[in-house]
Amino acid sequence: ELLARFVETLVRGYGVDPDVTWILQRSEIHAILYVNPDGRYVSENNDPNLEWRKNLNPKSCGGGEDYGVDLNRNFEFMFSNGDGASDDGCDSDYHGNGPESEPETKAVADYARALFPEGQRRDDPEKQMYDSHGEENMGMFVDIHSSGGYVFYPWGVEDAVSPDDEAFQALGRKVNYFNGYKLWAGGQPDFVYPTSGESTDWAYATLGVAGMGYEIGDDWQQDCGKFEDEVVPNNLPAFIFTAKTVASPFKTIKGPDVFDLSVVQAGGEIRVSAHASDSMMVNAIKDFPDFRTGAQTVAKVELYLDVHPDDHSEGDVRWDMNALDTLFDADEEHVDLVLSATDVSPGRHILYAQAIDSDGYKGTISSVFVEV
């Protein structure tokens, strides 16, 4: 249901919400609403305490009632490794009789393989699991589960950081800014247990994309009130935010973010204001040490008229915004720019704002419509 709400937000927001509009103009977002429809049926039509997570493969449990395969232990990367899944067909985390043995898992894997660039893939993901993918790869794979209030990212198979942990931890920390979820990942205090043959590890190690997931809410079958009042409003903004990063998630997530972008028109002037911060989102977790990607100063904030920053070329309109304290010398800056209304042609326009830190990282883009 949460994923369906995200799709509705995108469809209804196109042409209305400026961020949604440019996200859809520049990105493909593919949504698979139900990966395990049989397991969902069992869960919804039986005692919620059953907490059924497997599919309904009848061959696994020797005629017992606890048959099925845990689809999120059935992916190829690190399949059946160590304590990350069970060899017992009656256990709730049974991994199946081989990688991608289940049609549901194979369907998702084949779909992802057809979607993401072949040039990013690893020839031997398990031998290369400690080699960084670098910062230029594109794409994100997001898996949504219930429950517990976690955001998870590689590694899940072991309590160790991935070679791209700087980007992943920045991503997890910034998602926490929206929903307050704990970080379930190698090297984090809330690493709960290892998971082998898991989807987000597979997507990262094999396809070279930013793999991450959510354990949403606090109940296996969330009550409607808490879903509407907490789960939806806390997570939809996180989905929108991460969608802004998909062109280069391992790089963009390290840059400063732009907040409160606004436009006021009066007396023939257009005043654009914003707040840029390298640290506010990434250092939002209480009692966590400040993270290194949030330690840089905001070096500048650029404003673009009608042309997305990634498409800017010579002759397109771009301005440097001004620091209200006159100097770009801190990890947070309030900025503005005053334009004459004659500088902008009559009609509806979109303004894009992007901050750059002292290490040269360009952060997520915020946008606003303006009618002149």
Q: In words, what does this structure look like?
A:
The chain has 372 residues and is of the alpha+beta class. It has helices at residues 2-13, 18-26, 37-44, 103-115, 165-179, 199-207, 224-243, 249-252, and strands at residues 140-146, 150-152, 182-184, 210-216, 257-266, 269-277, 298-305, 318-320, 322-323, 332-340, 348-357, 366-371. The strands form 3 sheets. It has a 4-stranded mixed beta sheet with strand order 1-4-2-3, sandwiched between helices. It has a 4-stranded antiparallel beta sheet with strand order 5-6-10-9, with no helix packed on it. Strands 8-7-11-12 form a 4-stranded antiparallel beta sheet, with no helix packed on it. A hairpin with an 8-residue loop joins β9 and β10. α1 packs across α7 (224-243) and α5 crosses α7 (224-243). The longest helix is centred in the middle third of the chain and has 20 residues, at 224-243. It starts with a helix and ends with a strand.
- Rg estimate, integer Å: 22 Å
Distance between the termini: 39 Å
Name the overall outline: elongated
Q: Which sequence of SSEs, written as H and E, runs from N to C? A: HHHHEEHEHEHHEEEEEEEE
Q: Which residues form runs of ≥5 with pLDDT under 50?
A: none
- DSSP strand content: 15-25%
Write down the overall mean pLDDT. Answer: 96
Instruction: Give the fraction of residues assigned to helices.
Output: 10-25%
Helical segment count: 8
Total strand count, please?
12
How are strands sequenced across the largest beta sheet? 1-4-2-3
Overall structural class, as computed from helix and strand content, comes to alpha+beta
| Main sheet properties | 4 strands, mixed
